[in-house]
Amino acid sequence: MLDKLLRIGSTFSPIRAMLDDELHGPGIGFRVPANSGWTDRQLEGFLAQHNIHTWGWRVYRDMIIFDVNKAQGEQARKALEQCGVNYQGG
Fold first, then answer.
1. Do 87 and 80 contact (CB within 8 A), yes or no?
2. What is the pLDDT of residues 40-55, one digit of tens each?
3. SS3 for 7?
4. What is the DSSP letter of 34?
5. For the chain, which residues make up each domain, given as ranges?
6. Which fold has domain 2-89?
7. At what angle do helices 73-82 and 40-49 cross, to 10 degrees?
8. What is the pTM for the complete model shown?
9. Fewer beta carbons within 10 Å, N or C terminal of the chain?
10. Computed from CA positions of residues 69, 81, 66, 17, in that sequence, does the dihedral angle turn out positive or negative?
């Protein structure tokens, strides 16, 4: 049953991404290793403290994945780097 739900969910992921882009504007994807010492909630809170709007939070395999507005991409990169967060993308 869970496998079936996951397959259905993965079918809607591209649709959700398009809807998110419509709601939030063009986004830039970031990926943080799940074993980085940061949880998704910690990262979300940290970025919110820097007034960086995020969406699309998910964990896939060994990565925490999220999006920020393209206009805030550089701000997000600097905040993550200053805190020593190992990330990809952006």
1. yes
2. 999 999 999 999 999 9
3. helix
4. T
5. 2-89
6. Alpha-Beta Plaits (3.30.70)
7. 110
8. 0.77
9. N
10. positive
